[in-house]
Amino acid sequence: MKQESKTVEYNLTASEFNWEIKPGKTISAWGFNNQVPGPILRARKGDTLVINLVNNLPEPTMIHWHGIRLPAAMDGTGEVQRPVMPGESFEYRFTVPDAGTFWYHSHQNETIQMERGMYGGIIIEEESDLLVDDEKLLLLDDMKLTGDNEFKQLGPVGRWIERHDGREGSTNLVNGKEEAILYMHAGQTERWRIINAASARYFTLSLDGKPFKVIATDGNLLEYARIETEWLITPGERFDIVAGPFNEGDQFSIRSLPYNRVTMLTAKNQPYARVQVLERKESVAHLPEKLSDIIALAPQDAPVTRKIKLSVDPSLKHIIDFTVNHEMHGMDKPVMVGELQVWEVSNTSLMDHPFHLHGFFFQVLEDNGKAPAYKAWKDTYNLKPKTTIKIAWMPDNRPGIWMYHCHIIEHHAAGMMANFEVIDPADPSPSGKGSFAGCHS
Ligand SMILES: [Cu+2]
Known about the structure:
This protein has helices at about 110-115, 155-165, 410-415; strands at about 5-20, 25-30, 40-45, 50-55, 65, 90-95, 100-105, 120-125, 135-145, 170-175, 175-180, 180-185, 190-195, 205, 210-215, 220-230, 230-235, 240-245, 250-255, 270-280, 305-315, 320-325, 330, 335, 340-345, 355, 365, 380-385, 385-395, 400-405, 415-425, 440. By secondary structure, it is mainly beta. The chain has 3 domains: about 1-125, Immunoglobulin-like (Sandwich), CATH 2.60.40.420; about 130-290, Immunoglobulin-like, CATH 2.60.40.420; about 305-440, Immunoglobulin-like. The strands form 6 sheets. Strands 11-10-9-13-18-15-16 form a 7-stranded mixed beta sheet, with no helix packed on it. A hairpin with a 3-residue loop joins strand 21 (about 305-315) and strand 22 (about 320-325). The longest helix is centred in the middle third of the chain and has 10 residues, at about 155-165. It binds copper (II) ion. Copper (II) ion binds next to loops.
């Protein structure tokens, strides 16, 4: 029986608080509702989410709802809303049209606010033939702390290096906890919704070599599950996997295998959490052979409508600049509602960058001239050095100012981003700054 859509309300209060990441190790975190990560927001496909944000931080903030196809005015960027000042509140209100795994995070002074813990998961559910025995949401992060468990502050050279490499730390967190232990029952199968909330850390998932099934990318089910033993999850990406069944007494790590994204940092094998398998329980899990239908938006040879270059350019002021089409924090050309977009996105630099498009899902038609191995909907996709991808996406009727950027937060802050407008030809009045929607109080 189909359930009626409803309105689901949450209050999120942003503040500074003490957070114990493991016994004896407490940090002064910034986050939502005194927890890292913030509370999981749950709704059903078609529901309206209403989130009342109260800002009790000493500085302005706002929230971006990563992956959700919401109206531009609710996207939580500086182009569509005034930052929520200390002591103010703001109501976000939008319908959630897609089921899947999404997340929310600060989109203001992110190199500080996200690093300190301002993120959380969103689960949108729907009726499905896919049955699992249990579910886990795993938000991955790393923090760079001093021996006194304070967020490490850097001098000018350190800051310059961090702007280049992105900030990586050695305190590895799963759901805000270091050295976490997770439990599941033998014989059972679980859906793990995995979100990489780190500023810059590339996470190559390994369960100590145990195979798992990848079933969803950036919140959208694949057509067919893929059996894997390692899987790269770059900042901003989400992958849902099916884990198990395992044997009673099994113990294994959730770890990240080394990935060289070509920076000054050394790629390492890093444990994040342990899994302990408890006594056997009956399973009701059922994974259909076909999970979804993904209809191709465009053929592989579709003509390119726009070229975008992600570059690291020489700079008099900073030695190097992080740019889009050789511009920092630029404004790209508009797109029209209903006109298929085929974008060629090139990474001309010698390091990796995860490309994120706000508010719309795209399909990768080509990665360095080759069709991808499987069809998928994505909103974040990693570009290795000197590679070019071709993506297709459709601007549906949600006019306003949108954004794309590198999801290494330090590169985004340094300028590797651009805004662009989606224009409704029936109402081509300019939108953007000066026409902020929503209500401050
Ligand atoms: Cu980047």
